[in-house]
Amino acid sequence: MFKGKARAYTNIALIKYWGKKNEALILPMNNSLSLTLDAFYTETEVIFSDSYIADEFYLDDTLQDEKATKKVSQFLDLFRKEAGISLKASVISQNFVPTAAGLASSASGLAALAGACNTALKLGLDDLSLSRFARRGSGSACRSIFGGFVEWEKGHDDLSSYAKPVPSDSFEDDLAMVFILINDQKKEVSSRNGMRRTVETSSFYQGWLDSVEGDLYQLKQAIKTKDFQLLGETMERNGLKMHGTTLAAQPPFTYWSPDSLKAMDAVRQLRKQGIPCYFTMDAGPNVKVLVENSHLSEVQETFTKLFSKEQVITAHAGPGIAIIE
Ligand code: ADP
Ligand code: DP6
Ligand code: CO
């Protein structure tokens, strides 16, 4: 019997990953850059044993259906191949983050599973290799291997596509990300299907590709010079462009809801009042507000009033993957 357990935190992209060049290997069209956060995470245990006749997958104490289990099985196959074994496994995972709601559960979930497999099978993969493996489960998961600011180098094949930490002189410690929970239920269009439809059908997609490198350059400059305004403006612009591409997809779709617009508007109002803060959104209606710790309380107060206390969750920069027990 081989057993391993790991914890991984979610990450939110400041420069988004949006579109795959290779679906099977999960190679992205563009580099992305994220911040790992401390408020949401996944803990996953995996046990490989000859006592199992099939893989089983428990998420939040519920045995998952065939479809969800198959996804996990295919991911486990990568590790079984690496270890040269064929043992079936039991995967027991707890999401301390709403699942499939645009809050990056696939990032923490697949990173934690990768870490658990590495430990269980004593593969001794270093963090860069672990990032490559996590990528095969969900693209954004490759960034959750590391804490703080992280860049996913798109690469050109399986070996060259992985994430790595971005040197930042602890700039991330000055920052907070306030999550406005607008809807924590499962979204209608998964990240995977949303980006596929966009790549295949959106006439705006080329516009995304044409400008994402420039945004990435600016964002890295902002980290280097600890320029919060440049960081926030670049993040906000990049996120809006990503969401713009979905409107020209066929059929068109959007992850925004009326409350998302309300939250975005409140961020703009705060800026007018002289409080520097900026928003981003992922594949879901929830809004994330980036702010310096020095202005955190104003942002918290505004959103608690506008929504409710339960809907406002504050995160700071979080750590990389950890092996537990
Ligand atoms: P999110 O915005 O939460 O990342 P996605 O559409 O990208 O939403 O991914 C959701 C999918 O990620 C789930 O349907 C499931 O397949 C996978 N996932 C989420 N949490 C876990 C977990 N703890 N272990 C394994 N897979 C997970
Ligand atoms: C909008 O990593 O969830 O959050 O690779 O298909 O599993 P798959 O998708 P996923 O996509 C994340 C998209 C995003 C932007 C980002 O996190 O960079
Ligand atoms: Co995801």
From TrEMBL:
Keywords linked to the UniProt accession: ATP-binding, Lipid biosynthesis, Lipid metabolism, Lyase, Nucleotide-binding
Q: Which Gene3D superfamilies match?
A: 3.30.230.10, GHMP kinase, C-terminal domain
Mvd1 C-terminal domain: residues covered: 179-314
* Listed EC numbers: 4.1.1.33
Please tell me whether the keyword GTP-binding is annotated for this protein: no
Q: Is the keyword ATP-binding assigned to this protein? A: yes
- Native organism: Enterococcus lactis
| NCBIfam families according to UniProt | mevDPdecarb (TIGR01240)
Source domain of life is Bacteria
For this protein, the record's PANTHER family field holds: DIPHOSPHOMEVALONATE DECARBOXYLASE
Signal peptide annotation: none
For this chain, the family text in UniProt reads:
Belongs to the diphosphomevalonate decarboxylase family.
Q: What sort of enzyme, by top EC class, is this?
A: lyase
Molecular function (GO) terms listed? Answer: ATP binding; diphosphomevalonate decarboxylase activity
Query: What is the recorded name of this protein?
Result: diphosphomevalonate decarboxylase
The biological process GO terms on file are: isopentenyl diphosphate biosynthetic process, mevalonate pathway
In this chain the Diphosphomevalonate decarboxylase-like N-terminal domain maps to: 8-163
Task: List the GO terms this entry assigns under cellular component, sorted alphabetically.
Answer: cytosol
